[in-house]
Design goal:
11 strands, 2 domains, 355 residues, alpha+beta
């Protein structure tokens, strides 16, 4: 693997993925790279039909395309039809070209999830224009910004029900705390998982969260209303933002990969302008399972999920009768510097070089 392609892949793997799962590998043969899917690394409940993996791969691919021009290549992309059985997501051929600076490249390594409360400052007209331009690059994805305070509050309140469900459902509870990485040393060693520092919890909250990691304790506290209180606190904190970004697609697997490409372009543009982003996808992926009757959720939680998605859909104003669904949503605003960052695997550890 030549040094330029190594640097291109290094930029690629700075893409977002659920709990920093990095569900990808590469097979390199000369000037070609195959991107291989590892959906087993992703959260099995949130990764309905591997769609969480496809979103992550879309962001990965977009980073590779952006970085390629920076290092004097044009990346020719050949996408694979996606199914839950797909192992190769895409093939990329790197053609040598004069280097062209891409304004988004410098933002790639600085882009990070920021879960802090943001300042309640509206985005400027120029910021909105730049974000909308980046988010609407692809015909199969529509990107919108929701700015009305009442709608933001309703959307965030509905989205925040995911933590309540995860704390109240025994299987989800186990999966959630299995993904938590508690210390900096553990994070450096594992290079994946949901690093506690990135959750932006205060010291007392961290201790309470550690206590909740025991199902017997969580089960008792949930009956006392703790899970509902945490959801309300998240909604209050997360509602502090300049806008909510929404990616709308037709309900087809390949569109989730394209949504990931749009997401990354918006996120990099936001980073470039000094803005923070935070994905809020739990309820959306829960709803896809419920919609397809493969959820395994209790009747109470199915009702919460359906009501939450209906509230999100109504406040965004999409027409589900046309097959449109909310693929992704995230808050955007001035959050400052995150308290923690997630590590990445090296390109060498993820790449098989075929001679």
């Amino acid at each position: 693997m030549n040094e330029s392609i190594r640097k291109i892949l290094e930029a690629g793997i700075h893409a977002p993925s659920g709990s920093n799962s990095q569900p990808w590998k590469f097979r390199i043969a000369g000037d070609q790279a195959e991107i291989l899917a590892l959906p087993e690394r992703d959260h099995p409940i949130l990764n309905f039909k591997n769609r969480g993996t496809w979103v992550a791969h879309g962001a990965l691919i977009e980073n590779i395309i952006i970085a390629s021009s920076e290092f004097g290549y044009e990346a020719h992309l050949e996408l694979t039809p996606l199914t839950p059985q797909t192992k190769i997501t895409a093939k990329i051929t790197f053609e040598k070209k004069p280097a062209i600076k891409d304004g988004l490249y410098e933002a790639i390594k600085n882009r990070a999830t920021n879960r802090k409360p943001y300042k309640n400052i509206p985005l400027s007209e120029k910021q909105k224009e730049n974000l909308l331009t980046q988010g609407n690059k692809f015909e199969s994805v529509e990107f919108r910004l929701i700015e009305e305070r009442e709608k933001i509050n309703a959307i965030i309140e509905a989205s925040s029900q995911d933590i309540r469900i995860m704390l109240e459902d025994k299987n989800l509870h186990g999966l959630l705390f299995k993904e938590i990485v508690w210390t900096e040393q553990e994070e450096r060693e594992k290079k994946s998982g949901l690093y506690l520092k990135t959750m932006e919890l205060e010291k007392p909250q961290q201790k309470a969260f550690k206590l909740l990691s025991h199902w017997a304790v969580a089960n008792v506290l949930n009956k006392l209303g703790v899970s509902k209180a945490i959801a309300r606190t998240n909604a209050k904190n997360y509602s502090l933002c300049g806008a909510v970004g929404v990616l709308i697609i037709k309900d087809q697997d390949n569109n989730f990969l394209t949504a990931g490409r749009s997401l990354e372009r918006v996120w990099l543009e936001a980073e470039k302008m000094g803005l923070s982003c935070h994905l809020l996808t739990g309820v959306l992926f829960f709803w896809q399972r419920v919609k397809n009757e493969t959820s395994g959720f209790s009747g109470k939680h199915i009702q919460i999920i359906n009501q939450s998605y209906e509230k999100i859909k109504t406040n965004i104003g999409i027409n589900q009768d046309d097959g449109q669904i909310v693929a992704l949503l995230f808050r955007i605003g001035y959050g400052g510097q995150p308290s923690g960052f997630s590590s990445r695997f090296s390109p060498e550890s993820l790449a098989e070089v075929v001679k």
